Amino acid sequence: MLGICVCLFAVFTHVLSQEAEEPVFYTCTEGYEYDRVREQCRDIDECALLDDACKGGMQCINHFGGYLCLPKSAVIYISKEGEQVPLPAVPAVPVVPAVPAVPPSQPQVPRSSGNQGVSLSSRTIRCAPGYTADEQNLCRDIDECATGRHTCGPEQTCYNTRGSYTCQCPPGYQKNGDHCVDRDECALTHYCMHRCVNTQGSYYCECNAGHKLASNNHSCVDVNECDVENPCQHHCYNLIGSFLCQCEQGYELAQDTVSCQDIDECSFSSYMCQYQCINSPGSYACECPEGYQLQGNRVCQDINECETGTHNCQDDEMCWNYYGGFRCYPRNPCEAPYAKTSENRCICRSQAECQGLPPSIVYKYMSIQADRTVPADIFQIQATNMYANTHNTFRIKAGNEAGEFFLRRSSNVSAMLVLTKPLSGPREYVIDLEMVTHHLTMNYRSSSLLRLTIIVGPYAF
């Protein structure tokens, strides 16, 4: 709370003659003028008189004998008989307590005797400085501004007052001695929210990037760049004093932070797709080679052309599916002197023609992926008939010239074909696996042959 205690001194200078008809004049202190109706000195309202009394959005508060420049948000209190009463936003012109005065129509003789500034012989009035006697022998104010009897500079404005005058500088300037100099409003107080720029006789406010001046030309408000400029290629989010761009899925911000560029997901890893990754704007897709179909998003699954009926095998041919394709084999693989007895089994019935040949051949087919890790168990051979007092041996009779396979005896009646080298495809291997049976009691031996066709796919899946 701000208590304002105002002491008012009204000085009256009067010179009157010892006779009742002599004229009387009154002089008030600076900031007051004489009210002939009320016959008292009253305050001059500088806020109403001066249009530019206060700068920078400050409010002008009239005060006894002067005025105050205060912020518009200020709450002012005055003391009144021990109470604190808030001053209104637009204060009324204070009424100066009445000062006893002697009107010209009712002159009074001063109590003290002696000369009071009036010549008794000539009856000529003597006026105070700034006044002059008129034809009625009354003291009238001299208008120094109109008569040119002032010392105001060419850039100053002269205002006449009771008994004197005042020199006022243009708006934005202040007196420095007898001259007017620029008032640096930016140094006086914080008129601007962000930045204040002083100019000759005035100033203006500037805002930081992402802000603009409000309607009062002092405050700064945020600029919604997303609505004004729409600077982002995809999505724009406004921030206080700035903005943020965001790209759609599959894109990333470019170096200019507003454009969006495609993300090449295929360059991240070779495991994005099992076979081939195809990048596209904002996305990517996995593709599979011929003979495969996409399972899920990245895995390729072999198409069984034999089951789907998309093969071209003839009626006398058997369709065999392998990884990445199919092959057609004759339904009757037996060649002379062998004859087909059951599915995939051929027997030689003529001992004369089968001299030195295995009595039976069984045809089998299998598929494996290319580049399979080794060693790997891939096929098991097992005797169909078991006899007492017999001993079986197993061997690879043909088709293993490069040594890609090895036949490991598991028991007396079975053996395991082991892959010893990675195979690349597509390729077909035909391996003859022989089982020789030794009859211990009868002292003779027999053999049977399994012709295994191995088809290696073109890929490792």
How would you describe this structure to a colleague?
The chain is mostly beta strands. It has five domains: 1-141, no CATH class; 185-221, Laminin, CATH 2.10.25.10; 225-262, Laminin, CATH 2.10.25.10; 266-302, Laminin (Ribbon); 333-456, Cadherins (Immunoglobulin-like), CATH 2.60.40.60. It contains five helices and 35 strands. The strands form 15 sheets. A six-stranded mixed sheet has the order 27-28-29-35-34-31, with no helix packed on it. The radius of gyration is 60 Å and the shape is rod-shaped. The relative contact order is 0.07.
Write the layout of secondary structure elements.
Blueprint: E1 32-35, E2 40-43, H1 46-49, E3 59-63, E4 66-70, E5 77-80, E6 83-86, E7 131-133, E8 139-141, H2 144-147, E9 157-161, E10 164-168, E11 173-176, E12 179-182, H3 185-188, E13 195-199, E14 202-206, E15 211-213, E16 220-222, H4 225-228, E17 235-239, E18 242-246, E19 251-253, E20 260-262, E21 276-280, E22 283-287, E23 292-295, E24 299-302, H5 305-308, E25 317-322, E26 325-330, E27 338-342, E28 345-348, E29 360-368, E30 376-382, E31 390-398, E32 405-409, E33 414-419, E34 427-439, E35 444-456
Parallel strand pairs: 29-35
Antiparallel strand pairs: 1-2, 3-4, 5-6, 7-8, 9-10, 11-12, 13-14, 15-16, 17-18, 19-20, 21-22, 23-24, 25-26, 27-28, 28-29, 30-33, 31-34, 32-33, 34-35
